[in-house]
Amino acid sequence: MTDFIAMTIDGRAAEAPNRLEVRNPADGQVFAAVPDAGAAELDLAIQAATRALPAWRAKPWAERQALVARIGETISTHAEELIRLLTREQGKPTEQARFEVLGAAQWCAAVATMVEPIEVIEDTAAHRVETRHVPIGVVGAISPWNFPVMLSIWKIAPAILAGNTMVLKPSPFTPLAVLRLGELLRDVLPPGVVNVITGGDALGPLMTGHPGFGKISFTGSTATGRRVMASAAPTLKRVTLELGGNDPAVVFPDVDVRTTAEQLFWSAFTNSGQVCVATKRAYVHDEIYDDMLNALAEVAAAVRMGDGREQGSVLGPVQNKPQYDRVRALIEDSRQNGHRVIEAGAAPEGEGYFIPVTLVDNPPEDARIVQEEQFGPVLPLLRFTDEEDVIARANATEYGLAATVWTADEARARRLADRIEAGSVWINEALAISPFAAFGGHKQSGVGVENGLGGLLEFTNPKTVTMKRA
Ligand code: NAD
């Protein structure tokens, strides 16, 4: 059966002259269609957001807080249908789709507690000086296909809490759950506050170049991020760019190999490796290298990869065909170059985009699988002996998104956390992201942050008001 979900513009259902097909990555088959919006629909959405802006930004902060909290409640109420859509379009197992959808609801609840940021710099008989943080205006938001619901909420909740209105575009590979969210928001928010549109490759550039936006909040690859920044430049739009990563894990010999292997496995292979902050290179100390490689292979052999809708599946397919081809090409490149490639897991046969969990045994540092972001279920393991050397290798990348350090020695962990160039460093755990802590990339992994006070402020312009008293 082919499903269809409309866009949401000005609080109502909206169509486009053409449609895009949506495939289930577990079987490669088209199962739904969505509008393929162009310049005309984008204009309508921006006009709606512009009309909604004056009343929305004039609402007291507490009222906007209450509405952000209600978005969370609405997501919880409709969680099961969002989970079903997300599993079908994204491929992730139902339990992980549940984690994402309920996580998005909790995120709204958390963001709704954030207080209005006003700094009083001076309050004397002579002067009052305060810096307020006022909304930017209409925000264009663009989200990727790995966590479509969660990463859209990371934008919606703080942007509208701060008083902005928004036009949101999910990835054409995973538009359905976010379109459904748009439908649900029609009953929560005034018309035009959040508009959700979908379209193909042409729509993103139309958005980033559109003079109607004051800001672009983008999550996606570094290559696209560069284009977004260039396209935002002529009108000096504010940008937040959450981009790619090539996150190192550094594993010292004082860890328990079995426990750490399990954690490292999920750090690398959650969502079949399609996590921006997944471990993408694992530097393992020579003393435990062989044991760790074997332990990781054992974990891989014990987990089941399959259609996310089937009970027992804990790893799903790669989300789309271009990404599937890319990951397979990286594995093939390693084989061609004589690296030891270990197919450690099993994957279903058929038309789905499944790639078994694959480990690459100590390839050279300049191998593509080490240098490039794989964003799929393959992980290179690299031997090291010396702390200075491993820090240098961990930092030898244009990326700087996140890193993990695994050791029982707290002083050593702190030394590494100080010196690794990344926006997040997790010690003896992974993927520990909080709505209250800044999350963003250093170097070419991004510009600006999401989450925390810093993330909220990215949706504002500072405004300093100075009053001289008699
Ligand atoms: P992508 O860059 O291909 O696409 C992201 C979004 O941008 C999609 O909605 C796409 O339609 C749109 N887009 C494509 N071309 C555009 C253009 N020229 N102008 C404007 N928009 C355009 O990324 P993806 O393949 O969807 O996602 C995977 C990448 O995202 C990985 O590199 C991953 O590391 C990164 N990512 C980063 C974070 C983070 O928070 N740092 C989170 C998730 C994913």
Structure description:
This protein is an alpha/beta fold and 470 residues long. It has 2 domains: 7-243 and 443-468, Aldehyde Dehydrogenase, Chain A, domain 1 (3-Layer(aba) Sandwich); 247-427, Aldehyde Dehydrogenase, Chain A, domain 2 (3-Layer(aba) Sandwich), CATH 3.40.309.10. 39% of the residues lie in helices and 24% in strands. It has helices at 39-58, 61-77, 79-90, 94-111, 148-161, 176-185, 203-209, 222-232, 257-269, 286-302, 321-336, 368-371, 387-395, 410-419, 452-457; strands spanning 3-4, 7-9, 12-14, 18-24, 29-36, 119-123, 127-135, 138-142, 165-169, 194-196, 215-219, 238-242, 247-251, 279-285, 340-343, 358-361, 378-384, 402-406, 424-427, 439-440, 446-447, 449-450, 460-468. Strands 15-16-17-14-13-18-19 form a 7-stranded mixed β-sheet, with helices on both faces. It has a 6-stranded mixed β-sheet with strand order 10-9-8-11-12-21, with helices on both faces. β16, α12 (368-371) and β17 (378-384) form a beta-alpha-beta unit. The chain binds nicotinamide-adenine-dinucleotide. The site of nicotinamide-adenine-dinucleotide (NAD) has 28 residues, from α7 and α8.
Quaternary structure? single chain
Number of helical segments?
15
Our measurement of the CA-to-CA distance between the termini, rounded to an integer number of angstroms, reads 73 Å
Strand content: 15-25%
Q: Sum up the overall morphology in one term.
A: globular
Total count of strands:
23
Structural domain count? 2
